[in-house]
Amino acid sequence: MTQKQKILEYMRYHEGISTYKAFQMGITRLAARISELRADGHNIMSVHKVSEENKPYVLYRLVGDEK
C-alpha cells in the first residue's frame, strides 16, 4: 500500500490526519502527499488547530469521500 493509499484509508475512517499521526504511520512528508491527493481530485480540507500544549497544527480532513 502506498503512502497516499494509507493516508486516504486513514482519513476515511477517522476525523482526519495530523503530521504527528502520519509520522507514527511512517509517513514523513504529509503535506506533500496531501498536495498530491488534491491534485488527484480528492477534496481535502485543512483545519488549523491548537494542541493541549498550546502548539498549532493542521488536521487534514477528507470531504465527501468517506465510507
Could you characterize what this model shows?
A 3-stranded antiparallel beta sheet has the order 1-3-2. It is of the alpha+beta class. The two termini are 18 Å apart. The model has no long low-confidence stretch (mean pLDDT 94). 15% of the residues are buried. The radius of gyration is 11 Å and the shape is globular. The protein has a single domain, classed as Arc Repressor Mutant, subunit A (Orthogonal Bundle), CATH 1.10.10. The protein contains 3 helices and 3 strands; from the N terminus they run αβααββ.
Which features would summarize this protein structure in a list?
Arc Repressor Mutant, subunit A; 67 residues; 3 helices; alpha+beta
